[in-house]
Amino acid sequence: MGKRRFEYASGSPALDLVDTVSSRGTANIELLETPGDLSFWLHGLKIVAQDVTDHDLRDVRSLRNGIFRSAAAVLAAKDPAPEDVELINRTAAFQSFRPQLIEGSVILAADDPVRAAMAMLAAEAVTILSLPNRHRIRSCPECSMIFFDKSKPGRRKWCSSSSGCGNRAKVRRFRQKQLQEGSRRDA
Length: 187
Known about the structure:
With about 190 residues, the chain is mainly alpha-helical.
């Protein structure tokens, strides 16, 4: 199989990780099947992690599932489960990336890039799941993708308005309106 196409449209890298299970709740399609898939996904976040292991993949999936369950709890107006909060907090405590100045550019370096990426993702989850921010966690009414609403008014409804679910919903409403107007003219 060729390289998978990953989307990074949730407004949060932690929720982008959650989105690596496609059609969640129905087909539950695992997009991180191999360590190579994880390496490719991390590259989309501008993180170079070579030599990703099966153990790394298992740990990232575990973190992903804890973040998903926590976000789903928030969406249901509940507190995340203590064991998920503990997993996220423990992972956020790993050594994260350190900025390095190399040839005039800032490069993020780590002894273990996968663990550093997990720490970064967990820290992001801590931020978005915190009380001042959790009200901006949303679920797309079309595809159920969980996203973080960064819009200034805080009224984002769709995972993607321009080309994704929001656009399809607008097209359906437009067509329905055209049909209704046509049936009124014919009556």
